[in-house]
Amino acid sequence: MAGRLEGKVAIVTGAGRGIGRAEALLLAQEGARVIVNDVGGSKAGEGADTTPAEEVVAEIKKMGGEAIPNFDSVTSFEAGERMVKQALDTWGRLDILVNNAGILRDRMIFNMTEEEWDAVIAVHLKGHFTITRHAAMVFRQQRSGRIINTSSESGLGNMGQANYSAAKEGIIGLTRTLALDLGKYGVTANAIRPRAGTRLTLSDELRAAMERARQTQAAAGGTDTPAQSAISQLEELKPELVAPLVVYLCTDAAANVNGRDFIVGGNEISLVSLPDKERTIYREGGWDLDSLERVFPSTLGAGLRNPMPPQPPKES
Questions:
Q1: Known catalytic membership, residue 168
Q2: Domains of the chain
């Protein structure tokens, strides 16, 4: 049944390519009018090009939908306000916000520059805030709205991606708080951790970094992290297989789904558990260092394993 979002208006950031493009197209197919935002930069966030957003708008119009492009950077608070105003000025409403824009500046933490850290945090984490802040005012007033944020399994830890991992797991915390701040107004906020082959996830740099990480971990007797296992499957996973869950979460059928995050890609959709206490120890009067040294190894520390144990230095 098409037309599930008939009459709705959506903003999708980073919608010129990959996952964002697939999301914008499926939203439009279901009847939503779409603002297609994309600055058109490189995967590192450099440069600008109007072509990617314009091409997606043309695709939507070709299939009979309505869409307009937007070329603003999500790092700007004022740009976030302009995007929301663009929706209101063009179609008189805003119902859906899909935060998807992202870049990569991968580097081992001991080599990462301040600029590489700031750029990734600005696009991913601040970029989620800049538009959500202004959209939330509209959603609160009309007492309805859907927010879909884009996190990553890299947020669970991935070698060489300290900036990206921090931003992506920060987005999960943001999503949970948005759910609490806005839920009583009929607004939901959820996040996805997508698995899909895109120009970011299948870059030569990422492939090389992943191979180095595997070699290092194998030498230490370790195994792949969840992020590494997911990335190894990406070439077979299409962005179009991420979009259906995103669109479903925008429908009335998902009105009770709020503050959660999902792994989605290929044939799989998984609901990720909320963090919970794994083990707990108590001591009358609180814990001191001597008591912890005695008790911790056999209780909280039992079976814990260093995922990256120390290694001897390489011979020069």
A1: yes
A2: 9-271 (3.40.50.720), 280-305 (no CATH)
